[in-house]
Amino acid sequence: IELKFHYTVHTSLDVVEEKVSAVGKVIVDQRELYLGLLYPTEDYKVYGYVTNSKVKFVIVVDSSNTSLRDNEIRSMFRKLHNSFTDVMCNPFYNPGDPIQSKVFDSMVSSMMVQTC
Amino acid sequence: MAQCVQSVQEFIQDSFVPMVAVLCSEDADRVTRKNNLNFSELLRPFCRLTSEGHLRDPSNQIQVVKNLKICVSNIVTEPPQQVVTRRLLSEVVSASQPAESSVANVITAGDYDLNISATTPWFETYRETFLQSMPASDHEFLNHCLACMLVATSHENAPVEQFQKLSQEQHRIQHGSECTYPKWFIPNTLKYYVLLHDMGEGEEQRAESIYEDMKQRYGTQGCYLLKINSRTSVQSSNEQIPDPWSQYLHKSNFQNQVYDATNYTLSSVLSLIDAPCKTCNDHPLRLDQTSAHMDGIDALRAPVSDGKKVPSASSTHGACLTLNDHDRIRQFIQEFTFRGLLPHIEKNIRQLNDQLVSRKGLSRSLFSATKKWFGGGKVPEKSISELKNTSGLLYPPEAPELQIRKMADLCFLVQHYDLAYSCYHTAKKDFLNDQAMLYAAGALEMAAVSAFLQPGAPRPYPAHYMDTAIQTYRDVCKNMVLAERCALLSAEILKSQAKYSEAATLLIKMTSEDSDLRSALLLEQAAHCFINTRSPMVRKFAFHMILAGHRFSKAGQKRHALRCYCQAMQVYRGKGWSLAEDHINFIIGRQSFTLRQPENAVSAFRHILLNDSKQAASQQGAFLREYLYVYKNVSQASAEASLPQLPLPCIQSSATRVFFGHDRRLAEGEKQAASHVSLDQEYDRELSQQWRELEEQVVAIVNRGVLPVTFQPTQYCLNSQTDNMRFPLAVVEEPIIVEVVFRNPLKVSLVLTDLSLLWKFALKEFTLPHGSEASEIVSNEKDDLITTEVISEFCMNPEETKVARLKLLPHQTGELHIRGVVYNLGAAPSPGDDGTKILCSSGSVFSDGMFVRGRQDLEIQGPRLNSTKEEKTSVRHGPDRRLDPIITPPMPLLEVFFINFPTALLCGEIRKAYVEFANVSKVPLTGLRVVSKRPEFFTFGSHTSALTPLSPGASENCSAYKTVVTGSSSSSSSAVATTLVSPLDFGAGGNGSQPGVVDIPLPDSVLQPGASIQLPMWLRGPDREGVHEINFLFYYESTEKTSKMSHRVLRHTAIICASRSLSVRATACRSNTLPERSMERDGSMLVFVDVENINTNEAGVREFHIVQVSSCSKQWRLHSCINPVGDKDSKLTSRERGKLCFRAIKCRNQEGRLFYIQCSAVYTFADINLGNEQIISSTTPCADFFFRRCQTTELKKGFTTGGVSFGQSGSLSDSEGDIASVVRKCSEVDLNIVVLWKAYVVEDNKQLILEGQLHVALQTIGKEACSLSQKEEAQEMVLLKFRPELPPPLVRPSTEQLSHLIKTNLHYPESYDHPFPQKSLCMVPVTLTLSNCSMVDVDVVIDLRHKATSPETLEIHGSFTWLGQTQYKLPLKAQEVHKLQLTACFIHAGVYNLGTHRVFAKIANQDSTCEASQQSSMPALIVVNSI
Q: Which of B590, B892, B1363, B1402 sits a CA distance of 20 to 30 A from B670?
């Protein structure tokens, strides 16, 4: 299953790139970070989010899950972004290393629990 | 979609071509068979027309037909089977593989560089074959036969009749009820009569005449005379003719095979059923079956096998055809098309057009009328029609809607796309009105295509037409074949318009479960579309490639699957998508294995295992098993030439350690082996530096003070931090242990069996002068040279890092290179099942098949070089020769054992231990030495055996000292034994020798092989408390010198815990008493020894007894004990303090001369024993340690004074320096006190007596010296100053120092009776003794004038007067004693202080400034009594 997610997320990066380049042309300044639904597959819905520094977040949601609207996803991304920023602000963190922050971890897993 | 060879227009045109059927007579077939071809095959290469044709459309416009292709094929009566088509397609695809050297274009997208095959020929062939093998359906006419060629030969008896027969046959096929296939375009098919003439067989006239006859019968437009086979086989050999058939027939060969095979099975099955078979088989229509219509099976087989063989006989096509013949065939086709086919089509179009136009008004109104009138009745019909949609037949063949469609198709075939489009459009409307979905979809499809193909493209390509068509085909009609065709066309068109993502979506939509091959191909094309978009979507490409690969593998197209995965791999590799990467690698491995590319498979699997995978344990286990399986197969397949590299477990090669030497016995009973070096020790840079210094020290001494240039510190254990630039040396018959660090990166356990080292060895004789050069290079499996130890089993738990120690034992000298390790790798059985059982019996493991043998090389990168500029700027690594030892000739091997070696000592405690030296090699050993940083810690006794007490046999608890019982316990202190000893006897004080290096006295100085010797050794507890690590380095040599290894060393680290015992403070002061005896007159001192018990361990140590106090000095000796307490054994319990007082006098030799010559090298030992035993301090343990201590302190002092004098030398004038030194000397004593004690210790309910000695060095009078030297560090700190030192403060000797120059004494009667009443003046003679303590002349001024210090004293004591001269000035020579007679005069009785005189001294020849008043003597009281 993990393998499948890997493929899904990896492929979604193309869509993200496409969307980013499309958006970039229109308005450069006030770009909306949330990209919305990238693409639906049979089993999942893939949502994307790109920070200003071009860090991409992808959330994959079960297709059958109807409780999550666009707005919920958006707030999830915002939360994710905030805690990611916190991790990056850690002076002991080297960019590029795997994230080992416990706070980040618990935040993500709490988000998971919340949605499931 | 990848690039195609054809353009879109070409592709579409070629997809829809006029079909022409061929019907041959038997004889005609025979004629063409001469060329291994049948008639249609013969024509095939020439079916494309090179010239333009012309055509008039219904409105009489001339339409140009360019580049027309026609399709000539034999009449096949059955529609192609679904199964057959599938097989055909899959074979076509698998046959078309990318060539090895195929052009790959590199696409750079973002940070990806992808290597993608530019073309996908397999897809094109698939498409072509697919379109060709499309069954003709009723809703369209594009692949219906438009004409039929009837072929007969001129050699037949009655060609005309034959033609008639063929014509009838054709008619029967088309209009007969029993045959529904092939479909015919128009009821009256164009029949074209072809007379075949074999030039080699019949005469031409006959053919011509028959042709003439035919012309008359069928018209010039409808017949043709084709002359072929003009070449005889004789002349064929030397002429080279291009073979245009090969490229066509190669493909059709497959087709034939498939067809043949199915026909065979089909007919055999049918013949069993018998009844319906007749109708099928009785048709003599299939050319390769002409002879088969009598009895089925056997005859059917023959052509099949023929057909198979013929193409394989290679390039025999058209053997009887000359180039002329080729031209003739080409001309024939042209003639047929322009004269026959095109006019026929033109006619039909016109005809259909007329029909439509005439019917239009009628039909329209009629239809609408009927609709209106029978509106109610139409509804059920509609439902029926929808039902019929699926079966595909709604309209009768003559329905007007179909006529439109027919006309449109005709127009399309002759490239009249304008007309075709409008017709299709109309048809589409009609069909849609009638809800005839299949028909509508077909019309939509073709409308879209023709709209696209219209020259100048007046209207945009209606993509939605296509979409609707595909959807209809797929969903409504459930006809995937048509949907696929439609999708292929549409995708191709979209691609040509650069709408790649649309094309991709289209293609992806077409993938479905029913056909893996199609899905795979389409997915691959979709992937190619993604990569071709304006911003290449690399990841989508990769993903779809993987999907395609998956489908390919499901479809059995392994090669294609592998290719897809490999291409996708380029995207995923090294990007951290480890799961995906592992997955791909795994698939690649599997596929390559099944495709017999085991090397690739192994490397792919290796890749999975090498990386730190995040897979679950079970998955890893599966990977591992698969890898082992594949690997095993590979290794079985390939010869045993070289063992392949294994990926697991990881070797941390830089952590490899190499150890030379045996495993040592550490302890044996009470014997304790020298700790030496072992693999268990951690490397400590500081420590190794210390050892190195020690070794340098001893080697320097052995080589007379110089370190040889070739000196190389001995390294027994090499690791990443040692200097590995040189080849290490190993000795024959001594093991080499290599410690390899393995790491298991997996979450499954691994088992290595038969683990051993892999090496290469070059035999070399080092004893010969220039030795036989490296004779041959031998590697493993030769046990007579080197014994390789094998670890039979080595288990590694998941994610464990484990160390394996592998041993080699060389038996010959030479150069060894350790290359790597070799082992069997196996997966441990999963913990669930009974693992231990399997592990125990390795046999079963092997039978398990899960073990593979392989190797891993040990490659160690040397340290980075950083010395020259070049090396600094670039990254260069030095060599690392850890694993390349040189095996040298045998060397002696020493083992050292310590017996009774203590671990804890009191400070200053003396303990005797034994050392056993054993030579365990086969070579005698010599030159044994020991070096240590702490030479004061131990001694082996002196050279002169007289001074070394014989070692008592039993190592019982007896004293380490040599003692003499002195009889009475109350022996007077005056009985002082004195001995003279030269320090040289104790191996100390020699000029060349450095402290710390001690020769070990061996008998004959050689230790024979196998011999061992025990020597006594005395230890003295360090003076400072705490844990001390004391390093010993034993040095020894072989008796024969070898060039490679000059010496060997053995290390030992002793750890001693020292606890506090006594602290001794001593002060010396000048005694002012008048020397009583002449002997002691010249100088005596009082020595106060303050002993304190500072032991803190109250439970253990009960009390200390001071047994003896000895002195040793060059000038002084203790003379007697003047302890007020008496000669009691002085006991000190905890925290007690005792004071001892001694008198010391200057030494004299036998002649009575004073010893004051500094360079005298003889020390005087004097013992004052307080107990009943005298310890002879001048013998081994005591004197040894004394001298050792002296050396070390001198060494330290040497440093400090050296430093100071350097600073002084410039600024000081000589004279002043003189004074200073003179003055200093005067007060110097240089007396060493040795306090010998016994301690009563309770340990384990036993009382032990420990002995020890403490040293105090008295240097200056009045200055306290302590056994614990505290200020040493502080002094050494001075050395660290780098600034030029300030002129030292003692430029001139301090007054305090100067005041010691002269010693004064007053001699007078203590009480003097004087009858005052008689004589009022009392005169008392007083002698003033002045002695010069210094070594220079001193001028002394004595002033007797009264100078009371305070008025009070005057009043109390009254005063007296000196009579006579009150001031004397006299020079005193060095050491001179001068007596001065004085007279004191008293006038009253009373007590007086005579010590009022003042003495000033100055060194002779100096100005008066340095005149100093001498120490005022103590109050000298005199009692004057009046009688």
A: B892
Distance of CA B1370 to the CA centre of its chain: 90
Determine how β-strand B223-228 pairs with β-strand B190-198: parallel
Give the pLDDT confidence of B9-52 residue by residue, as tens digits: 777 777 777 777 777 777 777 777 777 777 777 777 777 777 77
Query: How many whole angstroms separate alpha carbon B1060 and alpha carbon B1093?
Result: 8
Supply the range of the domain harboring residue A54: 2-115
Map residue B890 onto helix, strand or coil.
Answer: coil
Mean predicted lDDT score pLDDT of chain B: 66
Test the A interface: residue of B530, B538, B540 with most A CBs within 10 Å: B540
Residue type, B842: S
Residue A116 C-alpha, separation from nearest chain B C-alpha, in angstroms? 24
Which of B161-175, B617-631, B1276-1290 has the least mean pLDDT? Answer: B1276-1290
Indicate the number of domains in chain A: 1
Instruction: Collapse the DSSP code of B1264 into the 3-class scheme (helix H, G, I; strand E, B; otherwise coil) and give the result.
Output: coil
Best residue of B508, B531, B532, B537 to probe chain A, by most A CBs closer than 10 Å:
B537
Contact yes or no for B461/B495 (Cβ under 8 A): no
CB proximity under 8 Å: B 518-537 to A: 530, 535, 537
- Cβ contact (<8 Å) for B542 and A10? yes
The alpha-carbon gap from B627 to the nearest alpha carbon of chain A, in Å, equals 20
Q: Judge if pTM exceeds 0.80.
A: no
Q: Give the residue carrying structure tokens 């992937």.
A: B527
The sign of the CA dihedral B665, B668, B671, B672 is positive
Task: Supply the pLDDT for residue B1375.
Answer: 65
Q: What CATH code is carried by the domain that includes residue A106?
A: 3.30.450.70
Residues with Cβ within 8 Å of B1023's Cβ and at least 6 positions away in sequence, in order, are: B907, B908, B1058, B1254, B1267, B1268, B1269
**pLDDT > 80? residue B747:** no
**Any idea how long chain A is?**
116
Strand order in the sheet with B1311-1314: B1311-1314, B1421-1426, B1390-1393
SS3 (DSSP) at B1043: coil
* Backbone phi, psi, residue B172, to 5°: -65, -40
A21 vs B535, B540, B542: nearest CB: B535
When pLDDT is averaged across residues B276-286 and rounded to a whole number, the result is 35
Sign of torsion over alpha carbons B1144, B1149, B1151, B1153 = negative
A13: closest CA of chain B, how far (Å): 7
Counting one residue from chain A and one from chain B, the pairs whose CB atoms sit within 8 A come to 34
Give the three-state DSSP class for B1376: coil
Q: Which residues of B1236-1256 are buried (b: 16+ CB within 10 A; e: fewer)?
A: bbbbbbeeeeeeeebbbbbbb
Q: What is the ipTM of this complex?
A: 0.72
Which candidate from B530, B537, B580 shows the least CB-CB separation from A7? B580
Is the CA virtual torsion B836, B839, B841, B846 positive or negative? positive
Residue B106: Cβ-neighbour burial (10 angstroms; 0-12, 13-18, 19+):
exposed
Nearest CB to A18; choose among B535, B572, B577: B535
Chain B interface test: which of A1, A4, A5, A11 (most B C-beta within 10 Å): A11
Tell me the per-residue pLDDT of B537-559, one tens digit each, with 9 for 90 and over.
Answer: 777 777 788 788 888 877 777 77
Could you tell me which residues come within 8 angstroms of residue B1131 by beta carbon, excluding any fewer than 6 positions away? B1103, B1104, B1105
Residues of chain B with C-beta less than 8 angstroms from the C-beta of A11: 539-540, 542-543
Query: Which phi and psi (to 5°) does residue B1235 adopt?
Result: -100, 120
Residue of A nearest to B575 (CA): A10
